[in-house]
Amino acid sequence: MFDQLEIRVLPPGRRFAAQVRFWVNSEDVVGSAVGEGGRGPYAADVLPADGLSPLRATGEPRRVELGEPECTGGCCGFLSVVVQRFGGIVQWSDWEIPHLETTRPLELHFDAAEYDAELARAEADRWWQINT
Fold first, then answer.
1. Superkingdom of the source (predicted)?
2. pTM of the full structure
3. Domain that holds residue 65
4. Sequence-separated (6 or more) residues with CB below 8 Å from residue 124
């Protein structure tokens, strides 16, 4: 059975530009790992208009920052994962968690076609760029 990924962009606030949050199997990955006061990466960084998102899965492993705690990643570390494609599977593995506290699994596996479709949907929905 594959894990299910949903990518959501949160509106900009007083403190941060629009940011991305990742829900896997209906669980907020960033909130679970770094706390609700933490933040995901900026939407402009992980959902660029050119379609060259660091979240794109290829045969080459790539470490991607998914979030940071409220005190900032420079203080306590970033939430990051290695993203890699293995044929029809996209794998998230080798998690780095701030404070080394996590209940996240060691690996998540996504159907590559569904993963690509969710990423394309998130990249195409640019509502957060209006008036920025």
1. Bacteria
2. 0.87
3. 5-129
4. none
Give me 22's structure tokens: 């990742």
- Number of folded domains in the chain? 1
CA distance from start to end of the chain: 40
pLDDT in tens, 64-120: 999 887 665 556 667 899 999 999 999 999 988 776 555 556 789 999 999 999 999
Residues 33-59, buried b or exposed e (16+ Cβ, 10 A)? bbeeebbbbbbbebbeeeeebebbbee
Only one residue has tokens 């506290």, namely 101
**Rounded distance, CA 118 to CA 72, Å?**
28
The DSSP symbol for 126 reads: -
Q: How far is CA 3 from CA 56, 61, 117, in A?
A: 17, 19, 14
Is the pLDDT confidence value at 22 over 90?
A: yes
